[in-house]
Amino acid sequence: MIYFHNDYSEGCHEKVLQRLIETNLKQTTGYGCDEYCAEAARKIKQACNREDADVHFLVGGTQANLTVIDAALRPHQGALCAVSGHINVHETGAVEATGHKVLPLPSSDAKITAQQVEQVVLAHRNDDSFEHMVQPKLVYISNPSELGTLYSLKELEALSTVCHENGLYLFLDGARMGYGLAAKDYDVTLADIARLCDVFYIGGTKVGALFGEAVVICNSALKEDFRYIIKQHGGMLAKGRLLGVQFDALFTDGLYFEISAHAVKMADQIRACFDELGVQYLVPGITNQIFPILPDELLAELSRNFMFTEMERVDDHNRCVRFCTSWATKQENVDALCAELKRLSGK
Length: 347
Fold this sequence. Notes:
single chain; 347 residues; alpha/beta; seven-stranded mixed sheet; five-stranded antiparallel sheet; 14 helices; 14 strands; 40% helix; globular
């Protein structure tokens, strides 16, 4: 069986593993106060062009999302996001469990607009009963989104402006950030994200690390006591240096961006095959996630040798599925998938 159902099926990149082996018996202080975490944070701040940022390392995406949101919001405040947003549909109510309501907005492409945010904020403020409702205070976006779509620089700038003009925080979930930044002709850089967002995180779990996300806080208002919130949510590892070592390796000599580009290159080849076969997509994309609409019969045959993710039924005879490449995707597996797709399509 060849797996294309996610981008975290393998362990970690060999250079990350090698650094873990090399540092395995080194003695350090605990809880992320070691030299490896400090060096990784230095490299990340340099890559973000934000020497004033605070960098904290957490284990996974859900933990990062609930910790950041809980730290940013007061008890009566909530987080706006797309209806398909990860915090709304795929985190078992983790944010709500902290006492903060998720406020979903309609979206067909897993993105939200500055206009939507402004409309919600103004509607809340102009309602005579505003004090009886959850106050929108934070905007949560994923980039790439849950459907692999990307916010353009213009869209990010508009969201940042409307948030700051209305006193909201802009929080970007970057679980797959590397794959977005590596996408062909994408006009957003890591420095742009650091300039426009109050807080974001750089995903490691899905981009070459064994586990881990690097939370980058750019807004000073969110920095105070953040480590207390990490500890309260069970995110402060005694062996925190394991996170620092991994991100130090990922941000040495451009490794993070190099391996992200590999995943996108592999995905582009699969997309080219689908294009050649005249396949339609649920949404167009340029990252490591592909959402083709395929006949049930073809999918039944394909599933004998390939693993992919079921998304939704489109009609009585066709379904949308997801194929996902990663930093570790092998050329021979992409070739095998494309050959099988062509065989089953009679091409």
